[in-house]
Write a structure and sequence with these properties.
heterodimer; A: 1061 residues; alpha/beta; seven-stranded mixed beta sheet; six-stranded mixed beta sheet; 34 helices; globular; disordered N terminus; B: 459 residues; mainly alpha; 16 helices
Chain lengths: 1061, 459
């Protein structure tokens, strides 16, 4: 491969539009002999280029793709068989050419190390950003000889601070997804881009005549200034055209809430770091929504305990269904989604500012337990004026958002823990209304040309007015152009489908949650005939064929003003962002008082409330074809590959929803759950039910994103489609539905069903007060034998661990189960996806898993699948603990002793090395591993055939075949890379590896800094300091395996007023 | 002496190891005729066809296993070992009775062993063959299984000798070798008899080659006797060692339910228990089909029943001690496992095991039952099943509930698990069918000796 690293090698950027030569060719009638001669005549680079252009000729390609060449219909004696064969020969030659040269056409600048030239085998990192909703996640992408292989957070970027989430980690798989659309199509037939451009120009001309009256553009949320400018440019060319936006998993609540509170759309930015007390009103700010990675980082930095003297922030969560944030909360109250508003009002009522003015009898609406909760929260918030924070959930109504703004204002938090900026979105609108307007226009026949840039409205639009019969409606539109990465449900009904470039394939920009301008630079030329939204729009303008590179450059120039343009540009690319471009806080005049709100009603008892939520792993459905995210167990349910209608234990009992543990896979694989029929909003859907401890009673959660019909091989026909019962007037919370339980059962892949530690030394926890009183709580009943009590010499005595002694410490206080580490590990270590069937057999391959335990777990006897035995009260709201379990790298490793062939051996630094070549697969090591961290290739799980997936793999990690055991290696490839560098340093003399120099993939991804890796021999290393803490304990210490992975006991900052409850 | 029960005619009949009225020639005729002159019966053909078909199921299952991988079985994480290991232990255990009968009883000069030792030894060999199928194919990469042998690798890599699986390799291969040698040496005089009596050329040549030039001279007999005695001495410790080593596979592991010192004696007793059950399972139809009631007498059957009762009681003690030690030690993992055995999702298996292995054999206290051929046959099947369940309970159920509750799982065998297991039965029975047709199922030489002893004793 040439060039990826060759940054001085500037490839011609002037897009002399669609190639003079090409146009010239097009004018000729198809002359086979000439084409053939042309293919033969060129040499060297010229040859290459001419062939490419020849290949790009639409007529020529057309002919190749048709069953018979166009000439066949007018077959005459002049074209004989020989010519035809020659042509076929030429086409074969061209097919070969297409395989080479995947380098972007513009300069990109590596982030950390500017190489003089590419050193083969040395990966490079480039800064870019992943646009995601109203946010851009700043990332660094590792590139091996031009192949992006791994995504990590960009430490300089405000949205990630170096961490990432499971979506960002998994987005690399989307790039290489073999199911991506590969060429533009017209009515399902393959077309060329040039062909599309030509047609687009024609359509533009006819639209021009009516000044764009029939043109509509539908996009998702756009924070890209460049793309927004491009859309504005189109709208300028076609003054009557309209731009609509629809993002199915992002609520209008926050937008409209700001409008309600301040009279206009504003962006809310939290400074979690400054908050001592946080109240989350159904908010999942730690794992979804703009800025969540940063918020998680800041939140857990305030929960870092270096000793019993440290203080923590405190989080109260009120929510209908356990979210990552709720599970991490110190106090959590399950409440119906519709009761959140009343709850917020009841809290506000306690504030001095509002007392007497609000609805005085609010408290009567709640249970004594909830009232106590309200009192305690209100008191705590007021005690921390200026350092408290109220966060409203994305899916909550505008009223709740407005209430949160008012409460923050009343508490004096504005300017300290929260501030407001101009919207990050380029064009904030009410998406529901926007889509409604579009649907109305289509219905009235006003739309001739619809450009759907990204998104999948046929699948995800509300079922009632807009898109239940969207298929029918789309037929009213003369031309629908759909741009998307996959040929999906919407593409089916679109005349034109254009494959969309991945963000790693095209130039762009985006604004982060706080407004920071981030540049998206491509790391690889489009793998297929894919194009960006910018280019599709350009095709309809007077500047077709212009890419976004120049626009991004111009934008950067405009932001930075004068100075050395080239230098600024390089620095921007190097950083991935322009520092200091975060939007300034704006003064927001409150135009809202909670007193104005009507008295809230509460839902009727036992009336089922259906709420919609983006799925924790596949979001709104866009990641449905991403195997990593499908196989990732959802943080709070531990299920994978399906969504399910979530119900609380009490409601399940009332409705007769049950489940049985299947004998195949069992607790670690397969649970058969009742199937329910849901009739809601005129739609009907059949779903598997799933009982979730901690969910509010009478609430049914319908996770979005599943039930895709055309997602690809991985994502189609999984789960049920919650969009099919989602109506526009109740996008997030709906009542009036009917749920009937059937006699059927549906097998759910559940990777962990046993939630009770059974009194074992697995998870240690305490409240902050208990911790202060008894800093040694993690060692209560600890039966770990002292070191050295052995008849044999252990490795230490044998002279191991002299130099480095790798260790990992995981702070359970900081883990909320977000699972970024799991996907990061999968990406780093080439871990295969095994599919639902294999997960149900208990064979998923994750090297790090996150176990979730409830403090009051299920009683043991539920193992017999007798649901009657479940103690409902214990499951009402159990505190949850998450425990990431990678290989424990034991010093007395039980696995090493039993391997008959020495395939798992102890390294001098204390790692349990796996020797794949030597492993014959007896699985004895796994049986003997008390932590069950070993994973076996029962079948050939790796995909060895799909070419695109080969590009994705980390070349530094063996791709395992079937029949061998594998497990976490502490990212030994990263250790060795750093070791090599350290040994070369100081002019070849070498030096010690510095603390923090080696970062394992899980540690790198972790947004809460719960995982710390380092050298336990260095007393000053972070890991040594953590290991020295009293909270540090060995999992199952009594087994004397002496794990190198140790845990720090979980500490919750309980409010003494609520603790007894 | 008064006419006590000891001298009653009934007791004397039961005490016989050879019915009266046989001389050297008639013994030889009777046994050799099964191989040489008796025509292939329809029953044999039918039986062999069925067992051969089942053997083909085994080969098919193994082929599919090699094509796809061990994932076609029901094993998973945490249950890394399933049917393959259960079957391995079961088959190895079955083999033990053969060695016990031929070696230990030989050394103890138990004459009653004579008529059953040959096929008991054959059973040992075939059972070891069936067992040996599993360690080879249960590994993830069967083509690399030779790594377990200490061969002079150019990389200088040796097996990891601390692993019980390596001990297993040595124990089982030694056992297989010694059993085969012992069996073959014992066969030599009989092969010579067959060579001499065979009427067709191929049989003469084949038996002739196998007889290794045996002429029956006194020197031959002298050397034969010493070799046989030596081999019996060599095989004797193996009866104890093989299953002890097999039990180490579990006892050395730290899994609750595996990690216990009671395992070696308990496994050996269990092995002999199941082995005798299997000898009965084979002997009863065999003596019926070939009219060998005079050679395999009621005394044989009763003696074997007594051995089963004794070993069954040791096994019961083992179960009891397993529970007692778990409770006595206070080890929470072991205690939890005991609870799981009794109340967990697999408790049905455990109770079935108690019924098969402890309760049913108590009937053997009654002589009426011990001398009832049909009852013994049924009981032998029940005990075989019980011993298989025992291994299932130990291997699989222990793994479903080990240390970390979050990683607990369950196991269910797949079609391929069953087809492989049943297939090895096809292998076993096919070999037995070939054996009874091709070799003397009862040692002619030793029976002749018995006739000699008898005639001396009767005088």
């Amino acid at each position: 491969m040439d060039g990826m690293s060759d940054h001085e090698h500037k490839i011609d950027q002037d897009n002399h539009p669609p190639n003079a030569e090409e146009r010239e060719l097009r004018e000729y009638p198809l002359d086979l002999a000439a084409a053939d001669t042309k293919a033969k005549s060129g040499t060297g680079k010229q040859y290459w280029r001419s062939i490419e252009e020849l290949a790009g000729d639409p007529h020529f390609e057309d002919m190749l793709h048709r069953e018979f060449p166009r000439a066949a219909s007018e077959w005459d004696e002049s074209v004989d068989r020989r010519d035809f064969l020659k042509l076929m020969g030429a086409s074969m030659a061209l097919a070969g050419m297409a395989g080479c040269g995947r380098t972007p056409e513009q300069h990109i600048v590596p982030y950390v190390k500017q190489p003089d030239g590419l050193i083969l085998g040395k990966p490079q990192q480039y800064a870019t950003a992943m646009p995601f909703g109203a946010d851009a996640i700043g990332i660094l992408v590792e590139s091996h000889e031009g192949r992006p292989t791994k995504i990590e957070g960009n430490p300089d970027h405000p949205s990630s601070l170096g961490a990432s989430d499971s979506f960002a980690q998994a987005s690399i798989l989307d790039l290489y997804d073999p199911d991506r659309a590969k060429t533009p199509t017209y009515a399902g037939d393959i077309r060329t881009w040039a062909n599309f451009q030509e047609v687009a120009q024609g359509l533009a001309t006819s639209q021009k005549a009516v000044s764009g009256a029939g043109l509509r553009i539908l996009t998702g949320t756009i924070t890209s200034p460049v793309l927004a400018a491009q859309i504005q440019y189109v709208l300028k060319l076609f003054p009557q055209a309209k731009w609509h936006q629809w993002e199915p998993a992002v609520s209008d609540g926050s937008r409209e809430g700001a409008k309600l509170a301040f009279g206009r759309y504003l962006n809310t930015v939290y400074r979690i770091e400054k908050a001592n007390v946080i109240l989350s009103l159904d908010g999942d700010f730690l794992s979804s929504g703009p800025g969540h990675i940063r918020y998680q980082k800041e939140f857990y930095r305030r929960r870092h305990l270096s000793g019993p003297g440290d203080e923590m922030n405190r989080l109260y969560a009120v929510e209908p269904t356990p979210s990552v944030t709720g599970s991490a909360a110190d106090h959590r109250l399950p409440l119906k989604a519709s009761e959140i508003e009343a709850f917020a009002l009841a809290i506000a009522e306690k504030f001095e500012d509002y007392a007497t003015k609000l609805h005085p009898k609010l408290s009567l609406l709640f249970s004594p337990n909830a009232v106590k909760f309200i009192e305690a929260v209100a008191t705590d918030l007021q005690k921390n004026r200026g350092t408290s924070l109220v966060v409203a959930g994305e899916q909550q109504s505008a009223e709740v958002h407005a209430l949160a703004h008012a409460m923050n204002a009343a508490l004096g938090n504005v300017g300290s823990t929260v501030y407001y900026t101009e919207p990050v979105e380029a064009n904030p609108v009410n998406h529901a209304e926007s889509l409604h307007d579009l649907a109305t226009d289509i219905h009235n026949g006003k739309v001739d040309l619809l450009l759907i840039l990204g998104g999948n409205p046929v699948y995800d639009a509300p079922r009632d007015w807009a898109f239940s019969d969207f298929e029918q409606k789309l037929k009213k539109v003369h031309t629908v152009v759909h741009l998307s990465s996959h040929y999906n449900e919407t593409s089916e009904f679109s005349r034109w489908h254009i494959p969309e470039t991945h963000f790693l394939e095209s130039w762009g920009d985006a604004r982060a949650f706080d407004g920071t301008y981030s540049v998206i630079q491509p790391l690889i030329a489009p793998l297929y005939q894919a194009h960006s939204a910018f280019e599709v729009l350009a095709a309809f303008t007077d500047k077709p064929g212009v890419g976004s590179y120049d626009a991004v450059r111009e934008q950067v120039k405009a932001i930075l003003g004068g100075g050395d343009v080239e230098k600024n540009w390089r620095k921007t690319l190097n950083d991935g962002l322009i520092a200091g471009t975060a939007f300034a806080p704006v003064e927001a005049a409150a135009k809202f008082s909670p007193a104005n709100l009507p008295a809230p009603k509460t839902a009727a008892k036992e009336e089922l409330e259906f709420i919609f939520r983006p799925d924790p792993t596949i979001y709104d459905g866009r990641f449905a074809n991403n195997g990593w995210l499908q196989e990732l167990a959802k943080p709070t349910t531990k299920t994978a590959w399906d969504n399910a209608a979530l119900v609380s234990p009490a409601t399940a009992k009332r409705l007769g929803i049950g489940r049985t543990i299947a004998s195949r896979g069992g607790e670690h694989g397969q649970v058969r759950s009742s199937v329910v029929n849901i009739e809601l909003a005129g739609g009907k859907v059949t779903a598997a039910a799933w009982i979730v401890p901690g969910q509010a009673d009478d609430v049914i959660v319908l996770p979005l994103g599943y039930g895709r019909m055309k997602a690809g091989e991985t994502g189609s026909n999984k789960g049920f489609n919650a969009y099919s019962v989602r109506a526009s007037e109740a996008l997030w919370t709906a009542t009036g539905g009917k749920l009937t339980v059937t006699d059927d059962e549906y097998p759910i892949a559940c990777t962990q069903y046993h939630h009770n530690v059974e009194g074992r030394k697995i998870v240690s926890s305490a409240s902050l007060e208990e911790y202060k009183k008894n800093p040694n709580f993690a060692h209560e009943k600890d039966e770990t034998p002292p070191d050295g009590l052995t008849l044999y010499q252990d490795f230490q005595q044998l002279g191991y661990y002299k130099h480095y002694k790798w260790a990992m410490a995981i702070d359970l206080t900081k883990c909320n189960g977000c699972s970024a580490c799991v996907v990061a590990c999968q990406s780093e270590n080439n871990i295969p996806v095994v599919g639902k069937d294999q997960v149900m057999r208990g064979r998923e391959m994750h090297w790090i898993r996150i176990d979730r335990y409830y403090e009051t777990g299920l009683p043991t006897q539920t193992d017999d699948a007798k649901n009657e035995a479940v103690e409902i009260p214990a499951l009402y709201n159990p505190p949850a603990y998450f425990q990431p379990v990678p290989c424990q790298q034991c010093e007395n490793a039980p696995c090493e002793q039993v391997c008959p062939v020495g395939a798992t051996v102890h390294s001098a630094e204390g790692l349990n090395d796996m020797v794949y070549n030597r492993c014959i697969g007896t699985r004895y090591c796994s049986n003997n591993c008390p932590y069950k961290v070993r994973r076996f290739n029962f079948l050939r799980f790796q995909d060895w055939e799909t070419p695109s997936l080969k590009l994705m793999r980390n070349p530094e990690v063996t791709v395992r075949s079937r029949g061998v055991m594998e497990k976490c290696t502490y990212c030994v490839q990263r250790i060795n890379n750093v070791r090599i560098e350290s040994e070369k340093d100081n002019g070849g003399v070498g030096r010690e590896i510095r603390d923090g120099e080696i970062v394992t993939a899980c540690e790198q991804a972790c947004p809460s800094e719960a995982i710390v890796f380092g050298d336990a021999n260095d007393p000053n290393s972070r890991v040594s300091k953590l290991r020295a803490q009293q909270r540090n304990y060995n999992m199952l210490g009594e087994l004397n395996a002496r794990p190198r992975t140790t845990y720090l006991g979980a500490v919750r900052n309980l409010n003494p007023d609520l603790e007894k409850a | 002496m008064s006419e006590g029960p000891v001298n009653s005619p009934e007791i004397r009949r039961l005490a016989r190891v050879l019915e009266p009225g046989y001389n050297y020639a008639s013994v030889t005729d009777k046994i050799a005729s099964i191989v040489l002159t008796r025509p292939v019966s329809l029953g044999w053909l039918a039986g062999f066809s069925v067992s051969f078909t089942v053997l083909m199921v085994l080969l098919g299952s193994i082929a599919w296993l090699i094509v796809k991988g061990v994932g076609i079985w029901g094993i998973n994480i945490p249950i890394g070992w399933g049917f393959a290991i259960v079957n391995f232990v079961w088959w190895i255990g079955i083999g033990h009775a053969g060695t016990l009968i031929s070696a230990i009883l030989f050394l103890l000069n138990q004459q009653w062993r004579t008529s059953i030792n040959r096929f008991a030894e054959a059973m040992t060999l075939f059972a070891v063959a069936c067992a040996a199928v599993f360690p080879g194919i249960h590994v993830g990469r069967p083509w690399m299984a030779f790594y377990m042998f200490p061969y002079p690798s150019t990389m200088g890599v040796w097996p990891q000798f601390r692993s019980p699986l390596i001990w297993d390799v040595f124990a089982v291969s030694t056992y297989g070798t010694v059993s085969a040698l012992f069996w073959f040496v014992g066969l030599i005089p009989d092969l010579a008899t067959l060579r001499d009596r065979a009427t067709n050329k191929p049989a003469q040549i084949i038996y002739g080659m196998l007889a290794m030039g045996w002429r029956g001279s006194a020197r031959h007999w002298h050397r034969y006797q010493s070799a046989y005695l030596l081999l019996a001495g060599l095989a004797t410790p193996l009866v104890l060692s093989v299953h002890t080593v097999v039990s180490f596979d579990f006892a050395v592991g730290i899994v609750p339910g595996w990690h216990t010192t009671i395992f070696p004696p308990y496994f050996v007793a269990g092995a002999i228990y199941s082995g005798f059950a299997m000898v009965l399972t084979i002997a009863i139809p065999l003596r019926k089909a070939y009219g060998l009631q005079d050679f395999i007498t009621m005394r044989h059957l009763e003696n074997m029943a007594k051995v089963m009762l004794a070993t069954g009681l040791i096994v019961a003690y083992g179960y009891f001690m397993e529970f007692f030690l778990a409770l006595y030690s206070g080890n929470k993992f072991d205690m939890y496992l005991v609870d799981q055995r009794l109340h967990g999702p697999y408790s049905g298996y455990y109770f079935a095991l108690i019924l098969c292995n402890i309760i049913t054999p108590q009937l053997l206290w009654f002589q009426k039952v011990r001398t009832n051929v049909a009852a013994l046959f049924v009981m032998s099947l029940v005990i075989n099943l019980g011993m298989w369940l025992e291994r299932f309970v130990i291997v699989v159920i222990s793994l479903t509930r080990d240390f970390v509750p979050g990683a607990w799982g369950r196991y269910q065998a797949t079609f391929w698990d069953y087809s492989t297991f049943i297939g090895t039965m096809g292998l076993f029975v096919s070999l037995l069918f070939l054996f009874v047709r091709g070799l003397p199922a009862i040692s002619i030489a030793e029976m002749r000796e018995l006739v000699a002893h008898k005639s001396e004793g009767d005088e």
